[in-house]
Amino acid sequence: MDNLDKAIINLLQDDFPICEAPYQNVAERLGIDVDELLQRLERLLQTGVLSRFGPMFHAEKMGGGLTLAAMQVPEQRFDEVAEIINSFPEVAHNYARQHRFNMWFVLATERPEQIQYILQDISEKTGLKVYDMPKKKEYFVGLRLPV
Amino acid sequence: MDELDYQLLELLQQGLPVCPEPYAQLADTLALSEQDLIERIQYLKKTGVIKRFGVIVNHRVLGYRANAMIVWNVPDAHVERVGQALSQIHYVSLCYQRPRKPGIWPYNLYCMVYGKDRETVLQQIDALIRRCHLQDFSYQVLFSTRCFKQRGALYPVLQTEKADG
Predict the structure, then answer these.
(1) What is the CATH number of the domain that holds A114?
(2) Which of A50, B7, B77, B132 has the most CB atoms at less than 10 Å from its CB?
(3) What digits encode the pLDDT tens for the residues B81-128?
(4) Is A104 within 8 Å of A68 (Cβ atoms)?
(5) Of A44, A25, A90, whose CA–CA distance to A64 is shortest?
(6) Which of B58, B83, B144 sits opposite A139 (nearest CB)?
(7) Is the residue at B133 inside a domain?
């Protein structure tokens, strides 16, 4: 990854233009040819530097459900419990964390009422208590990682 | 939002085409005019259904190896001020107020900090405590040790007429 790649990533983490020929617009701001921009973007996506290119949605405004859940999993059962949780397609991501509450996952469902059923299902399948930590308020931040 | 908006969101989730006229290509798929499609995306952005539109970086590949969830116990009267202040810090990504669990979990404000390594993250946390005047509030830092599943920000998209929200 060279400086131009970095400049592309930093620029495109901000809002991408929603207009005709948007890549042309970005290429001009970078002072490069649009073909070069497209080629580099393809490569950054293929090599996994960029995980996705598109919108971040507001799940609730789309009519869906979203929550963060936490569990205290005994160390010796960790992998087994992780496998049960990850088997639910509604689990968007799942992190092990260093704490008494050592497993944290995000659940995204088509409808809000499904959240409770799935958390209950996970609790029954694992025999462990699941703590629902739904968002009460979001403070907007632009997630931007300078590279 | 109508049926076409849901179809559009589903398409966009797969990623914006990397070609000179990506919106024209999406418009073709949905049998819309490019102008109509652009207006729909702009509207979804204006109403906040689309929070942000751009590239999502893979922070691990880019060398951000440490990520910490910091949870704070902030008195309810101060939570708005602190949440606003935290969200202004450039290395804070995501900041949410969530419920406490009485007797088990006193923390009500969550934020995420990414860094090249744990040392950097801890330094950043010290700096934000000073900058946001958080010295009086108890907190814990939960570093991630493993990421089991990361499907990005892919959310299921309703395809039905349920657009009453």
Answers:
(1) 3.30.70.3460
(2) A50
(3) 999 999 888 888 889 999 999 999 999 999 999 888 999 999 999 999
(4) yes
(5) A90
(6) B83
(7) yes
HSE-CB for A114 with a 13 A CA cutoff: 15
Alpha-carbon dihedral sign for residues B1, B24, A142, B107: positive
CA distance B155 to B152: 9
pTM confidence score = 0.77
Q: B86 near A138, Cβ under 8 Å? A: no
Residues A41 and A64 reside in one and the same domain: no
Q: Which residues, including other chains, have CB under 8 Å from residue B149's CB and lie 6 or more apart? A: A86, A91, A92, A93, A94, A105
ipTM of predicted complex:
0.77
DSSP B86-110: HHTSTTEEEEEE---BTTTB---EE
A12-29 core/surface letters (b: 16 or more CB in 10 A; e: else) = bbeebbbeebbbbebbee
Q: Do A64 and A42 reside in the same domain of the chain?
A: no
A136/B96 Cβ within 8 A? yes
**Nearest CB to A48 within list B48, B61, B98:** B61
Its domain, for residue B106, covers 66-143
**Judgement on whether residues A102 and A71 belong to the same structural domain of the protein:** yes
Return the sign of the alpha-carbon dihedral for residues B115, B62, A11, B68.
negative
With beta carbons under 8 A apart, name residues in chain B contacting A17: none
